[in-house]
Amino acid sequence: MNSTEVPPHSDSPASCESNPEVTNSDASNQQACDEDSRINMRIRVCVRKRPLGKRERRRGEQDIVDMENNVTCCVIAPKVAVDMTQFNHRHAFVFDEVFDAQSTNESVYRHTARPLVQNVVQRGCMAACFAYGQTGAGKTHTMMGVPNKLPGLYALGADDLFLMLERSGLIAELEVWTSFYEIYCGKLYDLLNKRQQLYAREDGHGAVHGLVSLCCMCVVGECVARKGLYMCMCVHPLIAPPRHDPHPRSGALSGHSECGHHGVD
Question: Which of 33, 109, 118, 212 is most open to solvent, judged by the fewest CB atoms within 10 Å of its CB?
Answer without folding.
Answer: 212
